[in-house]
Amino acid sequence: LPELPVQYADYAVWQREWLKGEVLEAQLGYWKQRLEGAPRALELPTDKPRPAVQTYRGDTRPVQWPRALWESVKGLAQRENATPFMVLLAAFQAVLGRYAGQEDVSVGSAIANRTRAETEGLIGFFVNTLVLRAKLKPEESFRQLLAQVRETTLGAYAHQEVPFE
């Protein structure tokens, strides 16, 4: 294989050098403004109470979509200048909000965080978590929610370098 132009350590040094001072303050300011007043948890009805200590044990459920449904999602995304991810996120947040009875819904989403071309061939864990928040308004249409989710997602992508921790 050809020699890589950079190593993971180079990326770590670059990130540390770039993400300080005014840049760090601007990046953190974005997230503080976006998340100010967000609920700490989504109060979904459950069959069991939340455990006293979080376990991080989860599960997966595979889902097979009919082709026509997937084509509809892609078509809506294209018409609204969004991505299928944004359409599905908006729908997911609308459902979560309805079940929880809340109008403020935040969802965590992983992002590759490979914003520099030099990192494409590197092996390393660049993944970061983004908090994508939607404020649901019963009087608004799904298209209006999708527009909000689109703007939120694009803003989060532009500020993805701030480590979630």
TrEMBL record:
Lineage top rank: taxon: Bacteria
Name of one Pfam family that matches: Condensation
Domain annotation Condensation: ranges: 1-165
PANTHER family noted in UniProt: ENZYME, PUTATIVE (JCVI)-RELATED, PTHR45398
Official protein name in the record: Condensation domain-containing protein
Source organism of the structure: Corallococcus praedator
Taxonomy of the source species: Bacteria, Pseudomonadati, Myxococcota, Myxococcia, Myxococcales
